[in-house]
Structure formats: structure tokens, C-alpha cells
Design brief:
Chains A, B: It catalyses: a monocarboxylic acid amide + H2O = a monocarboxylate + NH4(+). Two copies of one chain form a homodimer. With 560 residues, chain A is α/β, with parallel strands linked by helices. Helix content of chain A is 40%, strand content 12%. Chain A has a single domain, classed as Amidase signature (AS) enzymes, CATH 3.90.1300.10. In chain A, β6 and β7 form a beta hairpin.
């Protein structure tokens, strides 16, 4: 057995050994054919009390602990148990540190008992973290076998298993309990989640499909209620693709609203497109809770990249006021490059009708061609010709998954982008942003409110969750990274093989469109969640959370 | 005569022909030996009324116009006249558009008369602009002969002499009157101001010395009161060096606080170090006026790079409150690389004693070595091996000044920085910023206030104004660009040959230090202005304007 295989296997064994024996699922896990959806299936291994605790949202959890109704310890144990089960069903964890979490929870309970108050706004809340965060006591492999026993691939830094990322420090200070790090794809650059440790993270709603990526472990874990809220990063859709695929919520803030420094990443220092850090959760209030709490910790005093923008209650209130009158949403049914599959097209229409039922207005969104943004972003990911990711692969000689070979080849390219070429791409990006902003402003002439469009809606992807190996188009999420707009994802419906049939009049825009269209199979996709994105201007997180909440509630009503 | 020479000469003739004959200085301009300081000398060519108008600050000007006491037209004419005289004395203008300015002023007067109110907060205020701004009707050469008749070196874009930069649009909307574009050095990358149009911009306080750069024309023009306020850009000190050299005020905001998009620049798309746009003025209230007015125009809705941070009155007020108690300032006498000349060292002591007289506290500022920041910034300016600037030179084949050859050679380098090398420099920059922030936070343990240091002080340069061809060290200004801190410059004193004698115990840190030290000559520098920088955290412009005001007033008192 190749050295990397045994190293990977050894690490996986060590991690899995941290699951208490009584939490192991007895017998064989049923196949995807036998048990497609495991979101309900998981309940049989939990007590009624554990189900009660794990099936409310983060806002309710902290309220129950703060009122003294629940103890941090029992909450932590319940989520540890459910996360362990989730991992056995869909392979969503990289690192497990239940013991440290339970000890932290006990300390929080002691604090609460002694002081009669909580440590902070997240007191006792279990929070899961994508395996880019550094947490003391555990590895940060980011899915690379060669990173075992190192700090981001470097030996003898004195930092591995000791150093913690800035946001980890803040989360602890706010009272959160950290207990798992979740799976992601090799290199981070994929809408699926796979690596030589966990293999493949499946979609818990439909195990024939992908859990999305790169924050796929977060998506799957939260969908299974193994975590009430977690954090991922997003440079091309990496919190939005998994939220969408797994039927949960997320918000991708504008870059540098939340502290991303000190996280492991790929191609660190590429700064044409800046990644964002954002929460994934089972409700919108849960996202507001963590977002607001983190900003209250003044991250700009500790991460030099974070912009000094506290949570703006006034923007939240102003948006609620605005919503009492008529709002105008732009709607983009498709981006002119790849046609959304039938369930996705239906989700857009559900949202449109919810908007109209509320008395708000939907107008067509016809911005500068998104394909230009896709090119700018793909360029940025290619600057170094794959040198950085191949350096990490070569530390162990591990297998490179075909999805990654498609983007970065078998080895690094001989030449890299030059400074002048990179600068030209930066200028293109800035000019595109400006054109987009001008377009947005120009909608003031068609809304009838005197204001430009308040927010706009587009599919989260052309498919619901993707079929393994077939995440062939990222344009629907990439756009928001290029223009750096705040973007929320809300679940809308699920694919229904009887309703979502292929439109016979379909005509392909191009070869990729045809390829993506051909991947639709009503039978295979049946039951997969479908979401939309709600996009606001840069740094309008407070506003977009309100608008997402309004649409989320309205969709619920139309569904009934 | 070479083609570029005749083109340059022709353009200069056309520009100078726009100066009314009656505004030409009769006879010969006296030599620097005969008339070192022309700041008072210029008055003889002005009426008493013109002197009254041009020697108050921008805040008083708009107040006088808004009250109806002054007309926009007479204010504009007075500044046009004085700017024309200034240009004849120190060569500080690239473009003149007095006629358009006077027509604009007349329209403003009409508006005021008809509506009984001002158009905006800058109604009737003449504002000068560095020749990176695009203004309709005039060239934007940025000092390149080859850019004549083009848009940033490109032909047939349809934009030249038509397109206006975003901030120009906003200034007009706020009621400002635009009338001149000011000189800058070829490439922008110099602390002196020279090019094949204007030759050299001299320091009006001491024409043996440089006016600074790259916003040297702004510095000289404002020192001569040919403008009450103007705008420059700063990527390594380009508003601070000229403000310091010319005895005026400036603030370099953090990047992307004010809209810089659509300005001509060098190496556009280099985004390791982002340039800032900032005002230069004859008072701090003048800077606050334009800063606040521009933010009221919500530039983030028009420039996608601008952060959504309105002017924060609460931060201004909070700082004023804080100042009623004890403030603590860090003081950095030197950066350990280059020793400040005697007048500069004396200026620091004047500020220290002002701080202490006010009952505030001064502590030693000992941050991470500034030389590391200097290296990061110099790297960023070298990424393309000079290709961009040499492309602009080669459009005309014009003479490249020796100061530029020192940095960019006779021709572009054969190789550029690779994507990986640039990414590594970006990571170094981010890590340095983080270390600096950690250091700043750590000062909470020594201030005695429980807070970290409120702001810190350092020289604006090792010299007062530099001697031509001898601007040999930029470290004192570069630091604030690397950490992206808000930095104000306030004038403190003037060099005095009887007081500012070389310290006999001087020991060189290194060869550059020796070279800079050797350039000090008490006789030559006599009368040159000396300034200090006051540095705040990122985006703390409101706070730093208050602290600068407090120190500025206190220095005045100690000077009396």
C-alpha cells in the first residue's frame, strides 16, 4: 500500500476512534438505493431529548441555555452524538474533538451557575468549522495527506495543533463550543467534496448526489442537524453551493466583513478575488445571531483586512420599514450561459409568485454578461498554473481526484501569469464591477419606487445538488464573488420527478449548457433540495438577511 | 528638435496662452538665489481684495459665498489669477481651464440668486486636481508627452477630453469649481515633481528645494494660496511628501474611503498596495469639509471599490470627548533606517512638548521594523519590471528623468514577477499588517489609560523639502500605505540655520542613512517647512482630523 494511503487510513482510524462505541451505527449502513434520504433515518439512533435539542435553531439553543432551561453540556453532547451519526452516514467530518468540547461546555455551565449570566451571546452554542480553521489540539489537513503533522504543509513551525485562527478565538470568547471540523475537497476548488481521507461527502437528502463544495461537510452535517450553525469560506460559491444542495441557509458576506485571516487556503496571496467567510445554518435568525455576535467582537481590531463596520441595527430597521412599502426584486431566470434544470426554474417561479403575493414587484434583471465575470474568476484561479496545489499534493504523492486534474492538470504548468497579465485581469475585474454597479443604479428608471432594485434573485446553480463528477458550471455563484456582493441562499422546494420534467422546447446555448442539461434525470434528482440566491449590494448583510427572511416566510406560505 | 520636444513645447505654449496677458508677471522671474521664498513675493501682483479672498481657508470661502458676502465668480477669478502667478513662479500647473471655471461660477451665482440657497456644501469652492483626474475639455497627460491626444495612452477611445473621473462628477455635484490640473512627476513614482512639459516644480518657500511629489503641483500651488484645497493620490507618500515640503495640511485616508476609480495611474491593476486619494489644504477644517461632503455623495454607490462608510459624526464627537481626558500618543523619533535631519528632529520635539503641555502623554513607539514594509512596497512597484511606465515613455520617445531611471532603468526588465512571487509578497504584506496591529493593541499595557495608544507621530520624511535629485528615502511615508493607516500631515516649524545644526555625535545606520545625512546643509535648507505625520488606525479619518486639529492648535501656542 502506498505510503500516502496508509497515512490517510491511519489518520481516519484515529479520528473515527474518537467516536464513542455506543454512538456507532450497528450493522451496515444501507446503500443509497435502499435509503436515498437519511435526514429522517438518522433520528432512530437518537433519544427524544436529543432530537428536541438538535432540531431547533441556533437562536433557540442560546435562548434555552441563557434561560437556564438547557445546560451547555447536554446540548454539546447531543450535537456530538448527532454529528458522529451524520459522519457515518455521509462522511462529513475531518476532525473530531468531542472531549474538549464537553469540557468547554462544562466550564460554561460552571460559569453560568457561578455568575448567573452567560459568558457571551453564543454561550453554549455548538459551532462546526470547515477544515480550513486552525483549532488547537487537532490537525488542519485541508484534505491533503501531506499536511498531516505540519502547519499548512510546513514542518517545525511550532504552530501545528497549537495555533488558532482569529475567528476561532472570537467564537470561544463569545461562548461558542467547537467540536468538529468538516470535510472539503482537495484544493477547495470544487462544488463537490472529496479527498483521500473521507472519500466522498454525500448529500443526506439524496445520497446519489453531491453535498456540494467546498464547504460540503458543513452543508451535509447541518442538513442532518449534526450542527446548528457552522462556518465555511466562499471564493466561487463554496458556502452557497453546499447550502443550496442541502436545503439549508447561508449568507456569503462581502469579503473582509468577517475575519478570514489565519485560515488555511489554496493559492494564498491571490488577491484579485478575495474569499469571504460566512455562516451556514438551519435558519436565518441563526445566521443573524452569529454574524452580529462576531461583529460585536470588533474583528477589525484583530484582523487588519476586516473593514470597521459594526452590525448596523439601523440598516436592519430601515429595511424592515422599507418592506412595509413596495420592494422591487430583480429576477434572473438564467444567465444566458447555462440553462437551469426544471426544478431550479420552478424554484425561481415560486419565489416570483411569493414576491407578487406579498405585493412587491419583480422585474427582469439584465446585467452585464455574467460570462465575463466567470472568465475573470477562472483566470485568477489559474495564475500560478497549479503550482501551489501541486506542491501540496507532492508532499505525499497522494491521488489527485479527476475533478481537480480537470482544472490543474497532472502537474503545474511550466509558465505562470506575469505581473502585467495579472494587473490586466485586476483592471478587467474593476471595470466589470463598475459596469455592474452602473447597471444596478440604472434600474431606478424601471422600478417605479424611485429606488434602484432592492435586491435580485438568481438560481444558486443550474442543478439542485449535482451528480458526482458532474459539477460542470459555477457561473451562478461566481458572479457574486467578482462583484463582491452580499448573497444569501434560501431553500425553496425539492425536486419532484412528476412535476420537474424536461422542457421539450429546450435549445442549448452552447456545449456546456448541453452537457449540464443532459445531466438532468428526474428520477435521480427526485427529492433533492432547490434554493435561490438573494443578492444585495456590497456590505449589505443586515439588509439581505431581512429580505431573505421575508421571502423565506412567504415561500413557506405558498407551499402550504 | 526631437519630435517629443516640439510636441511638449507646443502643448505648454497652448496651456500658457490660456493665462490672460494682464496676469503675466512682467520682466524676468528672479532667481532662487535672489528670491528664495516667493510665498510673500506673489502678493505684489494681486489686489487687496484678491489677497483677502485667497488667504482664507476653504471653510471660510464656502461660508462667505453661502452667506452671500462673496460671489462664486470673484472667488474663482481670484484663485485663477493667483494660480496663474504661482505657475509662473514654480511651474505647478499642467492644465488651465479658467474660462470653463468662470462660466461654472457664474452658473452657481445664478443658481444662488434664483433659489436663494447653495447647490451643495462646496458651492463656489475652487478645487485644484492633480493631473491624474480626467476633466472634460482638457488633456490628461499625467506628465507623459506620448499621452497627448489620447486617453491614458490609448487612441480613438472616444474618451479623451470628454470622460470625467467619478470624483470630478461628485465635486461638481457638490458645487465645487474646477479650474486647474496640477503637476506631477513622470510615472508618479517620485518625491519630486518633474516632466518634459513643466520641467521642475520648485518649492515656493525655498526655491532651492523640491516641492515634493508626486502631488508636487498641488503642494506648491496651495502653499502659494493659488488653491484653497486640492486632491492628490498617495501610494508611497504622494500627498504627504508635498504637504510636508510646502508647509500645508493633508490627510491620506485609508484606501477606498474616497473614490479613486477612473483616475489615470501607473501600473494600474497592481493591487498589493492600493493608492489613496486625499485632500491637501491650508487648514484642517478645509479637509474635513471636503472629506465630509464627498462622503455625503455616497461614493460607494458609484465606485465599486469604495467602502460604505459615511462620515461618522459619532466618531468625531467621541474623539473630542476622549480628548478631554488623557490621550496617549506614540512617538517614533526615527525608523532605525534613516536619521531625520536636525530640523525634523526638532519638529518631533516640538510636538512632544505640545502633547505634554496639553496634559496628554507621549510614549515610545517601537513597532515591527519599518524596513520590512518598505521592502514589501518597493517589491510591489517592481512587479512588472517597468513595462507599464516604459510603454508610456516609448509612445513619444521622450527623455526619462534620472530619478526614474534609478528605479525603472533605461528599459523594461526581461522578466516580471511571477504569480507565485506576487502572492508571496501579498502574504508578507498581510502578515506584516497583522504584526503591526498586534503591536498597536499591545500598547494598552503601557498607556495607563486602558486603551492602546490613540495615535502615533513620526517624521513626514528625513528631510524638510528635499534637494533636487536627492529624495533618497521614502520609508517614513511608505509605512502607512503598507498598513493602510489613516495619516495626517501638519506643518510644525521651519528650518533655521542657526538652530538646526548637525549633531556631532551622529552615527550612520547604513549607507543610505549616510547619504541622506550628508545632503543636509543648514544654509540651503533655511526657511523650508517641517511637518510631522499623525497616524491612526485604518478608516479612522474622522478621529485623526480631530487629533491633528488639537496638536495643530497646541503647536501654534508653543510657537508664539
Amino acid at each position: 500500500m502506498a505510503d500516502w494511503k496508509s497515512k490517510a487510513r491511519e489518520h481516519v482510524s484515529e479520528v473515527n476512534a474518537l467516536i464513542p462505541k455506543e454512538w456507532l451505527i450497528p450493522g451496515t449502513i444501507p446503500s443509497a438505493d435502499d435509503q436515498r434520504d437519511v435526514t429522517g433515518y438518522i433520528r432512530q439512533f437518537l433519544t427524544a431529548r436529543e432530537i428536541d435539542i438538535t432540531e431547533v435553531d441556533a437562536a433557540s439553543i442560546v435562548a434555552n441555555i441563557a434561560s437556564g432551561a438547557w445546560k451547555a453540556k447536554e446540548v454539546t453532547e447531543a450535537f456530538c452524538h448527532r454529528a458522529a451519526l451524520a459522519h457515518q452516514l455521509v462522511h462529513c467530518l475531518h476532525e473530531i474533538f468531542f472531549e474538549a468540547a464537553i469540557a468547554d461546555a462544562e466550564r460554561l455551565d460552571d460559569y453560568f451557575e457561578k455568575k448567573g449570566k452567560t459568558l457571551g451571546p453564543l454561550h453554549g452554542l455548538p459551532v462546526s468549522l470547515k477544515d480550513q480553521f486552525h483549532v488547537k489540539g487537532v490537525e488542519s489537513t485541508m484534505g491533503y495527506v501531506g499536511w498531516l503533522g505540519t502547519f499548512q504543509g510546513k514542518k517545525d513551525t511550532g504552530k501545528d495543533k497549537v495555533f488558532e485562527s482569529e475567528m476561532v478565538r472570537e467564537l470561544r470568547e463569545l461562548g461558542a463550543v467547537l467540536y468538529v471540523k468538516t470535510s472539503l475537497p482537495q484544493t477547495l476548488i470544487s462544488g463537490e467534496t472529496f479527498n483521500n481521507f473521507i472519500g466522498y461527502t454525500n448529500n443526506p437528502h439524496n445520497r446519489h448526489l453531491a453535498a456540494g463544495g467546498s464547504s460540503g461537510g458543513e452543508g451535509a452535517l447541518i442538513a442532518l442537524r449534526g450542527s446548528p450553525v457552522g462556518f465555511g469560506t466562499d471564493i466561487a460559491g463554496s458556502v452557497r453551493m453546499p447550502a443550496s444542495a442541502n436545503g439549508i441557509y447561508t449568507i456569503k458576506p462581502s469579503a473582509n466583513r468577517l475575519p478570514i485571516s489565519d485560515l488555511a487556503t489554496s493559492m494564498d496571496g491571490q488577491n484579485t478575488i478575495m474569499a469571504s467567510i460566512g455562516p451556514l445554518a438551519t435558519s436565518i435568525p441563526a445566521m443573524r445571531l452569529v454574524f452580529r455576535s462576531l461583529l460585536a467582537a470588533k474583528p477589525w481590531l484583530y484582523d487588519p483586512q476586516v473593514v470597521e463596520l459594526p452590525y448596523r441595527d439601523e440598516l436592519e430597521l430601515e429595511t424592515r420599514e422599507l418592506a412595509k412599502g413596495q420592494l422591487v426584486f430583480g429576477i434572473m431566470e438564467h444567465d444566458g450561459v447555462v440553462t437551469p434544470h426544471p426544478p431550479v426554474a420552478r424554484a425561481i417561479e415560486i419565489v416570483r409568485s411569493a414576491i407578487e403575493k406579498l405585493g412587491h414587484k419583480a422585474v427582469k434583471w439584465s446585467p452585464p454578461a455574467h460570462i465575463r465575470a466567470v472568465e475573470i474568476l477562472v483566470n485568477a484561479l489559474q495564475y500560478d498554473g497549479g503550482l501551489d496545489v501541486h506542491n501540496s499534493f507532492s508532499l505525499s504523492g497522494e491521488r489527485v481526484y479527476p475533478q481537480i486534474k480537470g482544472l490543474y492538470g497532472e502537474k503545474p504548468k511550466d509558465t505562470q501569469w506575469t505581473a502585467s497579465e495579472i494587473a490586466a485581469n485586476n483592471v478587467r475585474s474593476r471595470e466589470y464591477q463598475k459596469e455592474y454597479l452602473d447597471y444596478w443604479n440604472s434600474t431606478a428608471t424601471i422600478t417605479g419606487t424611485g429606488r434602484p432594485v432592492d435586491a435580485w434573485i438568481l438560481p444558486a446553480a443550474p442543478f439542485t445538488a449535482a451528480r458526482p463528477g458532474r459539477y460542470d458550471y459555477y457561473g451562478y455563484t461566481m458572479i457574486a464573488n467578482v462583484v463582491d456582493y452580499t448573497t444569501a441562499v434560501i431553500p425553496v422546494t425539492v425536486a419532484d420527478k412528476d412535476v420537474d420534467v424536461k422542457n421539450a422546447t429546450y435549445q442549448a446555448f452552447n456545449d456546456i449548457d448541453r452537457k449540464v442539461w443532459d445531466s438532468y434525470d428526474a428520477e435521480i434528482y427526485h427529492g433533492a433540495p432547490v434554493a435561490v440566491q438573494i443578492v444585495g449590494r456590497r456590505f449589505e448583510e443586515e439588509k439581505i438577511l431581512v429580505l431573505a427572511e421575508i421571502l423565506d416566510k412567504a415561500i413557506g406560505k405558498t407551499e402550504v
